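# nightly structure sweep
# worker-07 picked up a monomer target from the shared queue
# config: single-sequence mode, recycle default, output format = structure tokens
# input follows
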Amino acid sequence: DGDGGLARVDYAALDALMDRVAAKLQREGVRPRDAVAVCAASSIEYAALFLGALRAGAAGPSRQARRQART
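# output follows
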């Protein structure tokens, strides 16, 4: 298949998955600036979960967390 075993998804599918993740998180009570843990088996799942959490209003990684990740 020539893709090196990597899964592919188009933007529309990723956008729809992000919407579903965001809606689910909001139904579960996630509010703006809440922290949400994200763990997924594949990079596409991780991207959809992370971006969906941001879309739901959850806080992104803190400056301190980014600084620690670099060290």
